[in-house]
Structure formats: C-alpha cells, structure tokens
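tl;dr need the bound structure. longer version: we got a ligand (2-acetamido-2-deoxy-beta-D-glucopyranose) that a collaborator sent over and nobodys looked at where it sits. i said id run it. heres the input, straight from their email, havent touched it
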Amino acid sequence: MAGMWRNVVVFCLVAATALPSSLLVAAAQATNTTATTPIPVVGVKTGIEVNTGKRPARQNINKLYARGGPQWDLYILALSALQAVDEADELSYFQIAGIHGLPYSAWNGVGQVQGAPFIGYCPHGELLFSTWHRPYVVLFEQTLVSHALEIAGQYPPNVAPTYLAAAQTLRQPFWDWASDPRLPDAVTTANTTVNGPTGKLTLRNPLYSYRFQRPAVEASFGGPLTRYPETIRCIGQGGNNATESDHLLGSVAGGLVSMVYDVFTRTKTFEAMAYANRNWSSFESPHNMIHVYSSCDGTLGHIDWSAFDPLFMLHHCNIDRLVAMWQAIHYKDAMFNTTGVSTGEFGTPPGTHITADSPLKPFFDGNLNLHTSKSVADIRVFGYTYPELDEDEPTTPDGLADHVRAQVNSLYGSDTQGAKHLSAPAQPKPPAGGKDDYPPPPPPACYYTAEISLDRAQIPLPVTVNLIVHGGLVLGHMSILALPCEGTASASLPLREALLGGNLSLPDMTPATVIPFLEQNLEVQISTSDGTDIPILTAPSLQLAVQDIGFVPRTNDSTFPRFGDTTRFWAMPVRQYDGC
Ligand SMILES: *[C@@H]1O[C@H](CO)[C@@H](O)[C@H](O)[C@H]1NC(C)=O
Ligand SMILES: *[C@@H]1O[C@H](CO)[C@@H](O)[C@H](O)[C@H]1NC(C)=O
Ligand SMILES: *[C@@H]1O[C@H](CO)[C@@H](O)[C@H](O)[C@H]1NC(C)=O
Ligand SMILES: *[C@@H]1O[C@H](CO)[C@@H](O)[C@H](O)[C@H]1NC(C)=O
Ligand SMILES: *[C@@H]1O[C@H](CO)[C@@H](O)[C@H](O)[C@H]1NC(C)=O
Ligand SMILES: *[C@@H]1O[C@H](CO)[C@@H](O)[C@H](O)[C@H]1NC(C)=O
Ligand SMILES: *[C@@H]1O[C@H](CO)[C@@H](O)[C@H](O)[C@H]1NC(C)=O
C-alpha cells in the first residue's frame, strides 16, 4: 500500500520511505495494550460550578505563567508526569502525540483502513481540519488533568485543598501568537523550578522539549530529525534557539495578526473558515506559518513529528480558541453543512466523501460512538471555555457575539480598519427587514487580498511562498506543510495593512493606483524552512491574482468592517524575487 502511494507522488512521505519493518513491529507492539473498550474523549468534568454550570477557561500560557502558584506548579508537574508515562501505554505523551503523524499506528482500536495512505490520522488542507483537532486537544487535556488531580493529592494537608481546587479548574493553556508572536517564556528554558509536594523542585522543563524514551526506536522513524534524542527547534542555529524562533516569528508578526483579523471579519461560512481554501482566508493558513516559523527546520515544522513538540498543544489550543470565537460570532453558521472530499489519512481512504457526520477517527464520545464534526461543534460539552467567551455578562447569542467582536477588535483589529483614526462614512439606513438586510455597503475604501495557488506535488515541502515588493518588503506569506503532499495548496492573503504600513508612498489606495503598482512590483519567493530558495520555474502551476473588495471600516468597537459582495480579480504576473 505504502509503495503504491509512493509511486504516485514524487516528494511525498519521505519519512515513510525510510521506515523499516522492524519499527512497524515495534509500533504495533507499543499499541498492543489496547483496552477492549475505547478511551472516550469527553473533556474534564471537574471544576464546573454546580449551580451555574460555568466552565473553567483555558488560559493564556503567558498569564498562567506570570501568575504562578498552585495551578502553574500542577501544570508543569502534570505535563512532566505525562511525559514520563511508558511509551507503550496508550495514554502516554508519546502515543497521544503519535496519533497525529508518526509512527503511523493504530490508536484506540481504530486501525488503518484499506486504501488509506501511510500517514497519521490528522486531516490537513481539508474540511475536517478544525473539527478534528478539537477532540484531539480535549484528549490531551483530560489526560493532563488526570495527572494534575493525582499530584494535587500528594501535597501536605495544609495546602492540599488549594492544590486540589487548582487541579480541578486546570485546563490546557493556549499560545495567542497573533497577540504576541514571541515564543512563550515558559517554553524557552531547559530547566524549570516549581513547588512540588515535597518542596521546591527543579526539573527538566517539559515545555522545552519532549525527550524520547526509546531514542533507538524513534530514530528509525526516518528523516533529519532522527538524530536528536528529543524534540528540537531551530537546529541550524544551535538547537532550541529561542532567539532565532523569536526573530523569525517577529518577521511575520504583521502577517499573522492581519490574517487572523481577516478570517474573523471577512469569512462568512464555517467551511471557508475551517481550512485553507480557495479565495477564502482560514485559520489554517496562519496555523501553518506557526508550524514553520516557530521551529525553523525543527520538530514542529515537520507535520509527521510536530505533535511531539510541547508547543503543539499550546498552538492547537489557540486554533481551537479562534474557531470557538468565530463560532460565537457566527452562531447561526456554527457548523458546516457542505460536503468535501478527503485527501486520505490513516483511517480514511483518499476520495472519501466528507460531511459534518463523518467520523473524527480515532476519537470516541461518551457513548463510544466516534465523534463527528457535529458532536464537537459546541465546546460546552467538553467542560471548558475561553476568557474571550466569558458568558457572565451577555445573556443572548447576539450579546455574546457583540462581546466577542469587541474582544477580537481589541486583540487583533488595527486602527486602519477601525473608527479610531478614520472618519467613517454614515451607515446606510436599515431597511424594514432589520440589520442583516443592509444593502451592500458603498466602497469608500478598498481592501486587497492576494489569491495564491499552486500544485503541491511540484515542490519539496514544507515551504513558504513570500510576496515581496521593492526588493524586500514582504506583503504576504503562505506556508505549505508537508501534508497533504498532493493537490492544490491555496490561500487568500490580506494585503491592506502591509500596503499601508509599508511606507510605499502610494498616493492613495484606489485600484487605479494599487493594481498597477502590484503588477509592476510584485515578486515571488519560494523558501524552504532552512532558508534555501526554490526557483519559481520549479512550480509552473503557481498562480497569483489580486482581489479588490469595497469595504467600510468598523464604526465602533463591537462591530466589524463591512465588505461588499462584489469583488474583482486581477491576474498578476508571477515574477521571481532575486534579492535586493
Ligand atoms: C496484539 O494484537 C494483535 C491484534 O489485535 C493480537 O492478535 C495479538 O495477540 C496481540 N499480542 C499481544 C502480545 O497481546
Ligand atoms: C538542569 O538541571 C540539571 C540537574 O537537574 C543540571 O544537570 C543541568 O545542568 C541543568 N541545565 C541547565 C541548562 O541549567
Ligand atoms: C541563536 O540564533 C541567533 C540568531 O537569531 C544567533 O545569533 C545565535 O548565535 C544562535 N545561538 C546559537 C547557540 O547558535
Ligand atoms: C477564485 O479566484 C480565482 C482567481 O485566483 C478566480 O478565477 C475564481 O473565479 C475565484 N473563484 C470564486 C468562486 O470566486
Ligand atoms: C447551510 O448553512 C447555511 C448557513 O447557516 C444556510 O444558509 C443554509 O440554508 C444551510 N443549507 C442546508 C442545506 O441546510
Ligand atoms: C518612509 O520613507 C521616507 C521617504 O522615502 C523616509 O524619509 C522615512 O524615513 C521612511 N519611514 C520609515 C518608517 O521607514
Ligand atoms: C455599534 O454600532 C452598531 C451598528 O451601528 C450599533 O448597533 C451598536 O449599538 C453600536 N455599539 C456601541 C457600543 O456603540
């Protein structure tokens, strides 16, 4: 099966090529502790207020770290304990991470199906991307908190109740990289000190890396990462080099925040938001950039290995948070009802028809049915919330949507899209049907996006495609991960902020100015994660267009900019960037 797959696609699945049969036996043995009953993914049930049903919020890692105290102690100790669980155990850090990519083995009794490619379970670049990762983070969270509860019980009686309460309300933290693109301080030191049950304790920092228990076995996974006994970031810069990660993340910070804001404000349907998709911006696009830029050429950037880096769950918890916030705003369209086609994963053959009722393998619900996008649509069933979704104040869905829009504006909105420094035009009068029936807004301002697409099979992945003007100003980035490794990769990248912030001396932002400027100046660079450039001639499928959309900036802090329904596409020449 694997051999057949290999013959089809040139650059695909390098790791699979190198995987020896001895490892497959080892991996199979490792999963042979499979319980007869599947492990259900139900979330954490502790810490929920009895009277109100109020669920604890997953916290920003930087805030949780800054606050310190029992919850931080327990988070670190629980993560450390989880990483110490025997890799043969299905609820070990190793095996939970192993669901995503390598070692391509059955988990929770859900095996590889006939015709399925030899990769992990995770769907990328397809409809199930955002819903699949939701129960995945929940599984990790419920396992983590089970360790925290156990550890809390070991503290001396005078502090045990405090620690127990802290464990009960502990949830998986998130890394909000669009607000602060630097690596969280907590993940950058090799050792860390906490208050353990028997006093102050310095231990290997479980957020810094995961150290493989069987380096000899894990080394046979194949590929350039096998030389390292632990997960690693920025290999070329000395390994786990936070300075270099921060440098790279800083270079794309503007792109990250404008992409996130663009998804919130411009994407109208769940299926468009849910995965990197033609002519729509989705959270998967900035998600890809974090995989590539925070690790340079390291573990997180290689999709087969990425889930082993402790940054993975912090990153995916944040993606889940962005999706949950989007759902609260678009509560009438909180789940897709369209269909798609799978590119194929460990438990799903390529070509499978995908709907919101398709199984999210290998995750079972409390009734031991496989979860589906519908069963994970509402985060309330999993016993957590997010700080931005605090439902104390708003009592109606519209009230909550306003509240979340205000949070999005304050976290990710820029002045140029808001009312702060612009005199916004008068709102059209609402027709009788109510505010949803406004006529399309007049186009007093123009919004621009770059529409990029290319055939993945033409280039060695992962890569980043940069759109550059004036010999160095990057207007947009599209990172493409190694999976799926065939089919069309596409993204819709917001350009307005970069055009305005770039000191380009454009006399105005009208299409008559901006489109000719881009036609004459836009250049394309395709870079691998180790910084090598690939000539654009390698990818003749690469297409580039610029879209202009009329829009009205937001008028106050709880509204979003309004976009016109009519847009125009301008084909752009694909020109090689050749340095400054
Ligand atoms: C491992 O699992 C396979 C397939 O489920 C089973 O046939 C075999 O007996 C198991 N081996 C052990 C040692 O449990
Ligand atoms: C981390 O702690 C270990 C002992 O627990 C020590 O050997 C090592 O030098 C420390 N590493 C750093 C970078 O401080
Ligand atoms: C880490 O990366 C920075 C560049 O961001 C570099 O100056 C420094 O030498 C690197 N450190 C090591 C140990 O290689
Ligand atoms: C998507 O964008 C391309 C240009 O890149 C355009 O030709 C096509 O019509 C667009 N599709 C839709 C559905 O808007
Ligand atoms: C799908 O969802 C959209 C948005 O909520 C809705 O307008 C449409 O009627 C739905 N279609 C079907 C077939 O349910
Ligand atoms: C913008 O460009 C002008 C003239 O080209 C220059 O004087 C100024 O320093 C630039 N500002 C920034 C922030 O680069
Ligand atoms: C913001 O603007 C909307 C639409 O114009 C309006 O309904 C809402 O009351 C305003 N909110 C505030 C806080 O001014």
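gonna send this back to them w/ a short note. The pocket of 2-acetamido-2-deoxy-beta-D-glucopyranose (ligand 1) is lined by residues 32 (CB under 6 Å).
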